Amino acid sequence: MTNDRTALTRSELADLLTEAAQNVGGIPAAEYPTAAARSYLHPVLGPLAAGPRVITELNDRFEGFVATEPRPAGSAGLFALASYASALGWLTESFAELTSSVDEICTRVGIPTEPCAPIVAAPGGTERDDEFDFAFNALELEAVRNAAEVAGLAPDDYVEVLSQSLLAAARITDACMEISSGLLDDADLLSEVSDRPRLDNDPGSLPALVRSLLARMEATE
Asked: Which top-level group of life is the source organism from (predicted)?
């Protein structure tokens, strides 16, 4: 974004947030070629590859946004600035958590382990994680064993790291969808000429992402 002596209009501010929402929303669907020996990382490699690019683009646009002359000063400009900044901060934090999760998976795979008992197909499912249940039929069990063999892992170890990968992917997907939804809500509000964003003590006057972040902070206290 280049400097311009004309302040951004409400429509342009809404377009800025909408574009950011689309970029963030596309992260979970990103694909990245995965080697057969690392198939357990497939759920996270696409988002892991796309995330830094999106964060860099958003950061560049944010820096251009605040450097624009005249700088955002009206209620609409400050509203958009708060929404964009909170989205960028939330996304950056979420990818730090994703990177940490992938590091843990890679560390887990690289640590020598004692031989595990072979996994068996169970009609009721075998709990592998607090949020994932796995039940394998005969074909799926054979596929897991083959994938584990290619990866050089015991079947139980393979299922463990795959479950961790799926959980990390679910978390970054939830974060991206919430960030994208908040940006779109804020963009819609900016687009409504008859409903000017307010900057008072009413929680409803804050951008959706800021309200969400405040609610999350209060929940952890």
From this structure: Bacteria
Rounded distance between C-alpha atoms, residue 156 and residue 116, angstroms: 6
How confident is the model over 60-86, as pLDDT tens digits? 988 887 777 666 667 788 888 889 999
Percent of the chain with pLDDT over 90: 43
Class of residue 157 by CB neighbours under 10 A (exposed 0-12, middle 13-18, buried 19+): buried
Q: Are strands 126-129 and 132-134 parallel, antiparallel or unpaired?
A: antiparallel
Q: Which residues contact 93 (CB under 8 A, 6 or more apart)?
A: none
| CB hemisphere CA count around 141 (13 angstroms) | 12
Tell the residue number behind the tokens 């944010």, with chain if given: 62
Distance from first CA to last CA of the chain, Å, rounded?
39
- Going from the C-alpha of 42 to that of each of 15, 38, 203, the distances in angstroms are 33, 7, 41
Q: Which residue blocks in 68-137 are alpha helix, DSSP H?
A: 75-110
Average pLDDT (204-216) is 77
* DSSP state at residue 172: H
Strand partners for 127: 133
Angle value at C-alpha 47, between 44 and 50, nearest 5 degrees = 145
